[in-house]
Specification:
Length: 233
């Protein structure tokens, strides 16, 4: 994880859930985002703080430092255990704390009889609230331009016992108060590390169910992709 997720509500709905009380910069698109099958390398709505308030931007899902270009594909996830200290993410750890609003994410489980046949599952909050993924990004905080190499990664952690049957990694999902603190530019790096290492939502906050294998094709879209479906063998 995390390799596919949904982001379908309006920006206003996400902001209401975040309960952000500082200015919102750059305007808000009132239309639903309506993305049920967000894939790596696509441009995704993220939330971050500038000096004057909260901004939104669409950035590519994927990041690599300039010295890594051409040597390996851009990363889409950063392991919480090493993100703060690794050479690969060191710069964006100190300057690029951002949030990705989501409604759920997908994981694939290998079939018991044929490992090549994988069953997708959709994972969401039990209470129906939006998810806030802790993320790191290279971006223009003024929100005015997108530069070469800009992009983001989602921070992941070990899955707790009980979700390991779905996948051994999961995104770091924060409650609204911790999401606001994570993205706050005044939050010290040591506190930011504590938030993502120790204070993510527990596995009990989530539910998951099988969905149609159509989600495996990145060209497929629509609400039907997140509706419960009998596991396919």
């Amino acid at each position: 994880m995390c390799g596919r997720f949904s982001q379908y509500r309006t920006a206003v709905e996400y902001l209401d859930a975040l309960r952000y009380d500082k200015p919102i910069e750059g305007g808000i698109d009132p239309e639903p985002i309506n993305r049920y099958n967000v894939a790596p390398r696509s441009r995704v709505m993220i939330f971050f703080e500038s000096d004057s308030g909260l901004r939104m931007a669409k950035l590519p899902w994927g990041y690599q430092p300039f010295w890594g270009v051409g040597k390996r594909p851009p990363a889409i996830n950063a392991r919480v255990e090493t993100a703060a200290t690794s050479k690969f993410f060191r710069d964006v750890w100190t300057t690029g704390r951002t949030l990705v609003a989501a409604d759920g994410w997908f994981e694939w489980v290998k079939g018991p009889d044929d490992p090549k046949k994988k069953q997708p599952y959709y994972i969401r909050r039990r209470d129906g609230e939006p998810l806030w993924f802790a993320a790191l990004a290279k971006l223009d905080r003024a929100g005015l331009t997108e530069r070469d190499g800009d992009g983001f990664v989602i921070i992941t952690a070990d899955s707790d016992q009980g979700m390991v049957d779905i996948h051994d990694r999961r995104p770091v999902v924060l409650e609204a108060d911790l999401a606001r603190e994570w993205v706050d530019q005044e939050t010290a790096p040591e506190r930011a590390e504590e938030i993502v290492r120790d204070l993510a939502l527990p596995v009990e906050a989530f539910e998951w169910f099988a969905v149609d294998r159509a989600v495996g094709n990145v060209r497929n879209e629509g609400q039907h992709l997140i509706e419960e479906s009998p596991a396919q063998r």
